[in-house]
Amino acid sequence: MKAAKTLGQFIIEKQTDFPYAKGELSRLLCDLGIAAKNVNREVNKAGLANIIGDAGSVNIQGEGQKKLDIYANEQFLAALQCGGECCILVSEENDDYIYIDSELSKNAKYIVAIDPLDGSSNIDVNVSVGTIFSIFRRKSVNGRATITDVLQKGVDQVAAGYIIYGSSTMLVYTTGKGVNGFTLDPSIGEFCLSHPDMKIPVDGNIYSINEGYYRHFPEGIKKYIKYCQEEDVKTQRPYTLRYTGSMVADLHRSLIKGGIFIYPISAQAPKGKLRLVYECNPMAFIVEQAGGEASNGYSRIMELAVEEMHQRSAIIIGSTNMVLKAEELLQKY
Questions:
Q1: What is the pLDDT of residue 49?
Q2: For the chain, which domains are there?
Q3: pTM of this prediction exceeds 0.85
Q4: For 178-186, which contacts have Cβ atoms below 8 Å and span 24 or more sequence positions?
């Protein structure tokens, strides 16, 4: 039987795709993989250890933090501090960006934006959660990196990925040359290539949206939901509704099977709820590289101007034909 290719081996092989990187991006991706293993270990024993439940604090968005939110954030920060390839970390769990001020990082070229534990409210009930990350090259040349280096559009990303902690743990990432997935083999403690060159189907029959907020959605989104529920043999409708409350879990399913994930604006979230920098942009990069689409209903997600670190956005993302239909109805009504 052919030996499985590990994440580290794969990254090194692909290093020649980035002659300017000189190995730094490869090492940075490996550092993120190491932190993911540590988070996976704690997620898998959450019911046995005193690490589930609320931490008693809130983040910048006013959301209650879980103990695992804080643990995951600390693990990724520690990995980036030790690696020396990252000069700034932007995290959902921190009010401001963290400048990594160490001897190793003084010449670091990369910015990392991260949602350390997406869908963490699912931890207590043993439903899949994930990590989302985005990587940029700093634009400034001299001195310390600044907020200007952080506020880059999604099209400027050099890499993005997510880790899903579920029945198996997978790391999926892109560097702009396709999407590849790696499954953690617990027997050897390594992520191994399991899903090479991932492609999202052009059509799907699964839609993911929190219909509990139906009354507060724009009319065009309501029309699309009704479209999904209508019977039509030609388009294999009605579609199936699947929504877990974890963007990583819902989009991972759509990436493999085909489908659409929608988090629109609403009366409660007039600008949208998901964060552009470390949720929407990285997932849009991945899905586009897999052949799908990602927009806020009117514009391409990765072309949106970034004005603040924790900026929010609506998102419609997934199989191309499904996204285009949702956009059509949203813009019509």
A1: 52
A2: 7-195 (3.30.540.10), 206-332 (3.40.190.80)
A3: yes
A4: 178/289, 178/290, 179/255, 179/286, 179/289, 179/290, 180/10, 182/6, 182/7, 182/10, 184/37, 184/40, 185/4
